[in-house]
From TrEMBL, chain A:
Molecular-function GO terms, alphabetical: phosphatidic acid transfer activity
PANTHER family membership: TP53-REGULATED INHIBITOR OF APOPTOSIS 1
Family indicated by similarity: Belongs to the TRIAP1/MDM35 family.
Gene Ontology cellular component list: cytosol; mitochondrial intermembrane space; nucleus
Keyword Disulfide bond among UniProt keywords: yes
Pfam family, one: UPF0203
Protein name per the record: Mitochondrial distribution and morphology protein 35
Keywords (A to Z) from UniProt: Disulfide bond
GO biological process: phospholipid translocation
Regions that span the bilayer: none
Keyword Disulfide bond: yes
Signal peptide boundaries: none
UniProtKB/TrEMBL annotation, chain B:
InterPro entries associated with the record: PRELI/MSF1_dom, Slowmo/Ups
Protein name (database record): PRELI/MSF1 domain-containing protein
Pfam families: PRELI
UniProt source species: Dimargaris verticillata
A single Gene Ontology CC term: mitochondrial intermembrane space
Domain PRELI/MSF1: 2-173
Length: 81, 187
């Protein structure tokens, strides 16, 4: 264990990290307080859309959309950016 | 040529807590090779409750140092697709690298299941498939490396999960409140 151990995980796009943490905080709360207690009504969608938009922009810049799409086709699941 | 490995063990924590730890498992002191994680897709079926998640993970150190010259970088993108079925108490997660596949393709399936005899425990099954298409006699060397690394990385991932599980238990708020990363001083 070193002092440099990060406390939080970054996003693939540095500028998306803050949005990622906002979304994940919301999700973790929903997951423990609602989902695991049997309430499956989704929440956090607005935060997710904002975060995902940022990530998709980064993935487009890194030319990764096609790679992800191809990988998912192998499994039969569709990826829609 | 495909090599397949498998092993099973238990976590001494209830399934629901283990699934929370699964979402929170990065960062941890045993995963310094993980550079970023992102949820790129997530859906929940309102009737069955099945939660489907796709995450993109960037990791360092896919191949041994001697093989790094064969690659532009030693980083690889990993796609993680998981399904949680809260009715049956099952989580299945499949991870595989989607870049650097020619050098080494590693697919891991992790199944987390509520222990049938003890609700305080969770059964874990890890399966991995390795495949390399390098040729030049390097394929078997890479596959042997992957085999050795599987034992090491599954230990590391288990230690990482146990570390997070202990932190979750310490907060003793679960499941009443969300978990927050502990301050560095208490690690």
């Amino acid at each position: 264990m070193t002092a440099s151990q990060p406390k939080t995980m970054e996003s693939v796009g540095k500028e998306c990290t803050e949005l990622k943490h906002q979304y994940e905080d919301c999700f973790n709360q929903w997951y423990t307080e609602r989902y695991l207690k049997g309430d499956y009504t989704p929440q956090c969608q607005a935060l997710f859309d904002k975060y995902r938009q940022c990530v998709m922009k980064t993935l487009q810049e890194k030319n990764l959309i096609g790679t992800i799409d191809a990988a998912r086709k192998e499994l039969g699941s569709d990826f829609k950016p | 040529m495909v090599k397949v490995y498998q092993h099973t063990f238990n976590y001494d924590h209830p399934w629901s807590l283990v699934t929370v730890a699964y979402w929170l498992r990065y960062p941890n002191p045993f995963a310094s090779h993980v550079l970023s994680t992102d949820v790129i897709e997530r859906t929940v079926d309102p009737t069955t409750g099945v939660l489907h998640t796709t995450r993109l993970i960037l990791k360092r150190g896919l191949v041994p140092r001697w093989a790094q010259g064969l690659m532009k970088s030693n980083e690889a993108y990993i796609l993680e697709e998981s399904d949680i079925d809260p009715q049956t108490g099952t989580m299945v997660s499949v991870t595989r690298n989607i870049t650097q596949k020619r050098v080494a393709y590693i697919e891991e399936t992790q199944t987390l299941r509520r222990h049938p005899d003890d609700p305080e425990r969770t059964q874990v099954k890890l399966e991995a498939r390795f495949l390399s298409n390098l040729g030049w006699g390097l394929t078997s060397k890479i596959e042997a490396f992957c085999q050795r690394r599987f034992a090491k990385s599954s230990t590391r991932s288990r230690l990482g999960m146990s570390y997070i599980l202990e932190r979750l238990r310490e907060t003793s708020k679960f499941p009443a409140a969300p978990w927050r990363p502990a301050p560095a001083s208490s690690l």
